[in-house]
Amino acid sequence: MPRKKSDPSDAVKLKKLVEIRSEFAKRRPAFVRPESWRYDRLSPEWRKPKGLDNKVRKSKKGWPRRAKVGYRGPLVSRYLHPSGHYEVMVHNQGELESLVPGRDVARMGATVGARKRALILRRAKELGVRVVNPTGLRIVVESKK
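The chain above was modelled as a monomer; its predicted structure follows.
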């Protein structure tokens, strides 16, 4: 089965989608955990407000905005890598075969060991597929027993 090549105009379209997504992100408010500015023990990382009298949950005026589905980015630009390519999780060499060079980029799973990482990187180079996280590769020394 012949491999599909991506059209250069597709890359331009995907880059444009990433720009549109970043425009949405600029208009999106910074969602902070309620009262995190008041107590040092609370990290500013967002948590859903659940208290009975919580002002953010009630969307009271003067309190920070609550994260809702309406603030989500455009559907067409979701799951895109900042480079403008679709990011696909890969755990072995066989999963590289379905990727389209120029449109997709591979991300190796965290549980993939050093030996398989080296094989995946070698195969990706042959296929012309970019791997976005090639680091974490230790040098494998082959020993004879």
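The chain has a mean pLDDT of 88.
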